[in-house]
Amino acid sequence: MMAASPPFAVAAFLIAFFLSKIAAAQFPQNSTGTSNLHLPTPYQSLCASLIHPSGYPCSEHKIQTRDGYFLGLQRVSSSNVDLRAQPGPPVLLQHGLFMAGDAWFLNSPEQSLGFILADEGFDVWVGNVRGTRWSQGHISLSEEDKEYWDWSWQELALYDLSEMINHIYSITNSKVFIVGHSQGTIMSLAALTQPDVAEMVEAAALLCPISYLEHISTQFVIRMVDVHLDQMILAMGIHQLNFRSDWGINLLNSICDGHVDCNDLLTSITGKNCCFNNSRVDFYLDYEPHPSSAKNFHHLFQMIRKGTFSKYDYGILKNLIEYGQLKPPAFDLSLIPKSLPLLMAYGGNDALADVEDFQHTLKELQSTPQLVYLENYGHVDFIVSTTAKEDLHDQLIGFFRSWGKSSIS
Questions:
Q1: Contact at 8 Å (CB) between 273 and 378?
Q2: Is 61 among the residues known to form the active site?
Q3: 3-state SS of the chain: helix, strand, coil percent to 5?
Q4: What is the DSSP string of 75-133?
Q5: 77, 182, 188, 292: which one is catalytic?
Q6: Does residue 133 contact residue 49 with C-beta atoms inside 8 Å?
Q7: 137: Cβ–Cβ under 8 A, 6 or more apart, which residues?
Q8: Which of 9, 25, 260, 383 could form a cystine bridge with 4, CB 3.0-4.6 A?
Q9: DSSP letters for 256-272
Q10: From which residue to which does the signal peptide run (predicted)?
Q11: What is the pLDDT of residues 113-163, one digit of tens each?
């Protein structure tokens, strides 16, 4: 059977991953049956556009990574004046692929983890990785430069997340709780193998934890990996994957309009998602997706092909230059301290974070994490489920309280 022609194959690849991350079961349809994808409305800041309108105090922070990228962090406090007077332990929320810090606030205050943690008395910090809408800029590079997009989750872990944790630790003089989702768990696990990072972390809750992707179960993604579409994208000179651009919106609309059943495709990529509010799809699309890099895609596809949790593979010659060895070094999960408490939540319908790969991760850890298994959850339910407070958040908060040194009433 012949592979799809490159232009359509690339388009199919892009739409697949876009749909897997926008946290919606379906695109809203207009009267003609076409998808209502649209450009976002202008934003001043994450605080001004999403947090303040819900009645929560929020402040913007900017930090710089060791390799020169500017990152935006938001600090969110409770809407309760009494709780604001004496903030509890800091919690850093780390989003997944094609998302940013807004992902934690897309539902109502009663349903969104960011708001819930603030109202439970935690000092909530919101992470945004380089290249997303809330973390733009570099000391010398422009976003138009291909070098600006020369990074994968490896740099997001070792530079972005590490710098966020260090900043919060220095500001609060307290160890940091981490909550990561999907790519945010890859970043967390890799960063926590670094002793200087791990010593600043009190505990971590990992939602849809990923370190290995060898047994990813979605056949659509497997097909895209087999035809090496990640390498084709790089060969085409595409370095930034930005679906909010004019060409991205037009591409997605044209694919969904008669070429691909986008509703079924989401389920085929992420697994069946049980519990989010379809009526909020338009609102989700105002914020998602955010840009990422083609190199990041390539790194993730390397993981699927090789079954490894390793640094980026440049090929033999450049590996020798970058790493001093023929193959990229693996991230050794046994280096995560046994004393560091971990909670890991995973879903029975998650087609991206496969249970067999999850078991591989568990075997390499020194510790025995607290596990939360939600049989009917798919990949995006862990972010936007309307029942997540009862299903997950209450257990997560109880876990943090059991390890936190500060009292939270």
A1: yes
A2: no
A3: 45, 15, 40
A4: EE--SSHHHHHS---EEEEE--TT--GGGGGSS-TTT-HHHHHHHTT-EEEE---TTST
A5: 182
A6: no
A7: 69, 70
A8: 9
A9: HTTTS-HHHHHHHHH--
A10: 1-24
A11: 999 999 999 999 999 999 999 999 999 999 999 999 999 999 999 999 999
What letter represents residue 354's amino acid?
D
Q: Locate tokens 């008395």: which residue?
A: 121
| Identified catalytic residue from 167, 290, 379, 393 | 379
Helix spans in 80-145 (H): 81-85, 113-119
Q: Considering the candidates 123, 350, 354, 381, report the single residue annotated as catalytic.
A: 350
Q: Which two tokens stand for residue 24?
A: 């919606």
Instruction: Convert the pLDDT of each residue in 363-374 to its tens digit.
Output: 999 999 999 999
| pLDDT tens-digit series, residues 326-373 | 999 999 999 999 999 999 999 998 988 888 999 999 999 999 999 999
> Is 350 tagged catalytic?
yes
Q: Is 167 a catalytic residue?
A: no
Query: The domain 6-403: what is its CATH number?
Result: 3.40.50.1820
pTM of structure: 0.87
Q: Which pLDDT score, from 0 to 100, does residue 322 have?
A: 97
Cβ–Cβ under 8 Å, residues 268 and 218: yes
| Selection from 171-180, 252-261, 270-279 with the highest mean pLDDT | 171-180
Backbone φ and ψ for 343, nearest 5 degrees, come out as -115, 135
**Cβ atoms within 10 Å of 57's Cβ, excluding its own:** 15
Q: Which amino acid appears at position 328 of this protein?
A: P
| Sign of the dihedral defined by the CA atoms of residues 163, 165, 169, 175, in that order | negative
Token readout for 215 is 């047994």
273-to-39, 106, 185, 375, 377 alpha-carbon distances in Å: 25, 16, 19, 11, 6
| Per-residue pLDDT at 296 exceeds 70 | yes
Percent of the chain with pLDDT over 90: 64
